[in-house]
Amino acid sequence: MKNYSEMLPHITGSDYETHFWDALRGKQGYKEQVSKGVDNRSGALTLNPKGQSRYMAALEKEGLFRSLATDIRAYNYNYNIKTANGNDVAAWVEEGGTIPIADGMGDFNDIALKIHKLVVFLKLEEAFVKDATFKIEDYLVSRLAKNFGRAEDNGFINGTGENMPTGILAASGGAEVGVTTNAITYEDVVKLFFSVKPEYRRNGVWLMNDETALALRTLKDDGGNYIWNHANDTILGKKVCISEFMPSAGTGAKPIAFGDFSYYWIVDRRPLSIRTLTEQYALEDCIGYLAYEFLDGKLVRPEAIKVMEMTA
């Protein structure tokens, strides 16, 4: 298949869904029935749309960024997405007056979307998989969502853009630095908050790891007031999100991010696809699975998220 649109009619029906999961159980004789669902990039079987919807719902629960960012599906082509690089145009216009469309014509920049491959491998006992009472779809969807969710969050935070997404902490293409400091103080956190424009503060959230959160829970101003609201776990009225993939405070590290994470775009380039490995693990009485995601991630407006950078 050249692209997903050509593949879609062949993987939508209930027959393909049944044969897909039978193939993942290691059953033979379904090669022809599922051949139209083979992804040309991975050589694996493409998950049907119903299964993909279940998987994406599970992935959003497991992965932090999937619940914060903007998720875009772009399955078919290697194209650039144009995004506004500034403010949209809103103006009062008198009856018969000129509408200032030209003011926003140049307010776009191209964002090149790549196709990065993320792979998860797991294996299960063959007897377990072939047990008719074992709900293989529920199990694999849940387990793959957990594994992919963790790997995605790491990439969306720390990715370099080389063979992986561009993370928010990337030196190039990542979030802007709002505050530099050699030790996190009450004033530094407040400065970081106000370094973000009001339009991005409106839906802003904080992102940090457990160690940083613990330090901020005890941080006070000169009057003895905590910066952390212990009643609802917010800082300056904004939700705190925890990720183990955020760094701790240290020279050159960026331990705290704040802003509107909806300006981080996750672009899914292919649905989930899974390859069954039977012969390789026959001596172990196991069946292996290679699952593939193809995606990219970029912060389309770097000023929407600001980070604190440590200088010493």
Plain-language structure description:
With 312 residues, this protein is an alpha+beta fold. The mean pLDDT is 91. The termini are far apart. 34% of the residues are buried. The protein has helices at residues 4-11, 14-24, 31-34, 49-62, 64-68, 126-129, 136-158, 186-195, 198-201, 210-217, and strands at 45-46, 70-73, 80-84, 108-112, 116-125, 176-181, 205-208, 228-229, 234-235, 238-242, 256-259, 264-277, 286-299, 305-310. It is globular. A seven-stranded mixed sheet has the order 6-14-11-7-10-9-8, with helices on one face. It is built from ten helices and 14 strands.
Measured by DSSP, the beta-strand proportion falls in: 25-35%
Instruction: Please trace the helix and strand order, writing H or E for each element.
Output: HHHEHHEEEEHHEHHEHEEEEEEE
- For the largest beta sheet, what order do the strands appear in spatially? 6-14-11-7-10-9-8
Q: What number of structural domains do the residues give?
A: 2
Q: What profile does the largest beta sheet have?
A: 7 strands, mixed
Mean pLDDT equals: 91
User: Which architecture name of the largest domain does CATH use?
Assistant: 2-Layer Sandwich
What shape does the CA trace take? globular
What Rg, in angstroms, do the CA atoms define? 23 Å
CATH topology of the largest domain: Major capsid protein gp5 fold
Distance linking N and C termini: 53 Å
Helix content: 25-40%
Number of H/I helices:
10
Strands, count = 14
Task: Find the structural class using helix and strand composition.
Answer: alpha+beta
Quaternary arrangement of the chains shown? single chain
In the predicted model, the low-confidence regions spanning at least 5 consecutive residues are: none
Top CATH class of the largest domain: Alpha Beta
InterPro entries: Phage_capsid (IPR024455), Phage_capsid-like_C (IPR054612)
Domain Phage capsid-like C-terminal: 43-309
Subcellular location: Virion
Protein name: Phage major capsid protein, HK97 family
